[in-house]
Amino acid sequence: MPNSNSQLNAITSKKSKGVIQALALVAVSITGAFVLQAPHANASSNSVAQNSGPQTATGDAINYEYGTIQLSVTTDGSKLTDVGLVQAGANGGREQAFSYLITDAISANGSNFANLSGATYTTDAFKRALDSAISKLN
After folding, report:
1. Domain presence at residue 49
2. What range does the domain containing 17 cover?
3. Considering the domain boundaries, does residue 21 fall inside one?
4. Helix H segments across the chain?
5. Does residue 68 sit in the same domain as residue 125?
6. pTM attached to this predicted model
7. How many other β-carbons are positioned within 10 Å of the β-carbon of residue 70?
8. What distance in Å separates the CA atoms of residue 5 and residue 104, rounded to the nearest whole number?
9. Worst-scoring range by mean pLDDT, 25-29, 57-61, 90-94, 115-119?
10. Residues 80 and 118 placed together within one structural domain of the fold
11. Region of 89 on the Ramachandran plot (φ > 0 left; ψ -120 to 50 alpha; else beta)
């Protein structure tokens, strides 16, 4: 007959490890140490590549359910320094999101930032427009 104490210790050890992992995940989630976010089907989450000196590029116009977004980006070296609104059409108050999205894009140095609550479609279109502009940098 197998040693029941060793079997019990193995089961208890596995359960304890699972409980500790679950508690760690809850603690990290509560503190906001990371954000779980669904991947974007068409977004490549571009970030600015290294280049020499200031550059500016304008991306393609992105049409979406609530308007059209077209952006220009300015970089200095590998740092995104400015995002300009070439076209920024949005209805139903969604245009208020643009100032936040610009700040988030500059802080993230690209399109790898969380969606703006209440403006998911506008955020997604903004990220696609941003990726388009970044891709046109030399």
Report:
1. no
2. 1-34
3. yes
4. 4-31, 97-108, 120-135
5. yes
6. 0.64
7. 19
8. 55
9. 25-29
10. yes
11. beta
